[in-house]
């Protein structure tokens, strides 16, 4: 919401200063796109890593560690479509334990998306592979 408000203020400033209307018209969609990409609405509700691991142990569904603004996370989410809601999502920027889990799996790097399926990490897997793991779950 903040990105949309900032973009709107910038566009209003451009229009009031009598700058190019084309520039103003191009700026607002960029801010709206940035807001959409960073929106929590794009991803299912995140939970903490301990809860995700507990749920995964119970139902066998993979855990996806992600962070806002990551183009690879967004690509995976979009390609998964509706099946993404069946996964357990952990935002590593909101969960220090989740970030530590990702670093432990990736030689100290916070490389996302990192998907844990059957207790094993997989970095930047394809959506088809993730769907296959979902089909194996309870």
Explain what you see:
With 138 residues, this protein is of the alpha+beta class. It has two domains: 2-37, no CATH class; 49-136, Glutaredoxin (3-Layer(aba) Sandwich). Helix content is 53%, strand content 12%. It is built from six helices and four strands. The protein has helices at residues 2-16, 21-37, 49-59, 71-80, 96-105, 127-136, and strands at residues 63-66, 88-91, 114-117, 120-123. Strands 2-1-3-4 form a four-stranded mixed β-sheet. The longest helix is centred in the N-terminal third of the chain and has 17 residues, at 21-37.
Topology:
Elements: H1 2-16, H2 21-37, H3 49-59, E1 63-66, H4 71-80, E2 88-91, H5 96-105, E3 114-117, E4 120-123, H6 127-136
Parallel strand pairs: 1-2
Antiparallel strand pairs: 1-3, 3-4
InterPro entries: Glutaredoxin, Thioredoxin-like_sf
Domain Glutaredoxin: 63-120
Pfam families: Glutaredoxin
């Amino acid at each position: 919401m903040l990105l949309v408000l900032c973009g709107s203020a910038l566009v209003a400033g451009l229009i009031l200063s009598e700058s190019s209307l084309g520039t103003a018209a191009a700026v607002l969609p960029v801010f709206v796109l940035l807001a959409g990409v960073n929106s929590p609405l794009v991803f299912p509700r995140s939970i903490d890593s301990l809860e995700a691991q507990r749920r995964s142990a119970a139902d066998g569904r993979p855990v996806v560690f992600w962070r806002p603004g990551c183009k690879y996370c967004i690509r995976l989410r979009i390609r998964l479509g509706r099946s993404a809601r069946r996964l357990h999502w952990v935002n590593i920027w909101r969960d220090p334990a989740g970030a530590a889990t990702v670093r432990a799996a990736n030689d100290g790097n916070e490389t996302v998306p990192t998907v844990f399926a059957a207790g094993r990490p997989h970095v930047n897997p394809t959506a088809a592979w993730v769907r296959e793991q979902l089909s194996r779950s309870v």
